[in-house]
Amino acid sequence: MIMKGRAFLFGNDIDTDAIIPARYLTTSDPQILKLHCMEDADPTFPAKVKPGDIIVAGKNFGCGSSREHAPIAIKAAGVSCVIAKSFARIFFRNSFNMGLPIFECGEAVEGIQAGDEIEIDPQSGIIHNITRGQKFTSRPIPEFMQTLVGDGGLIEHIRKRGGI
Predict the structure, then answer these.
(1) Is the dihedral of CA 74, 80, 83, 86 positive or negative?
(2) Is residue 114 within 8 Å of residue 8, measured between CB atoms?
(3) pLDDT value at residue 122
């Protein structure tokens, strides 16, 4: 499934408190979390993001606490994926467990500007900056992880296979 959307840029070391501030952790309702996604990093983000849009960030995206609320909020906000130079290890795992695809590609991060139209093929790992006519190569998402994402995350994947 090809992902396509506008790029929203964020810097290095965006922690889980910037993704979803701790003051909203009294709920795990995705419909509430999406209203506050990235608001401490960019207060206008929740109002501007549209389904399919893409977060592009520097190194160590998702650092800080291990809360699952962060990828839930990003996914609920309609973001199709995150491209970053690197991800915090626990955020990487939580993202796929929650059904949010992520891509590491420093060259793409350097070549993408805010508002650029981006298209990503998770099977090939090709990131196409349509606005600038550039293509970058990320590691493709393995087939099993694509299945997890397609099923909506680990719990839904297990549920669909009769495990819950």
Answers:
(1) positive
(2) yes
(3) 94
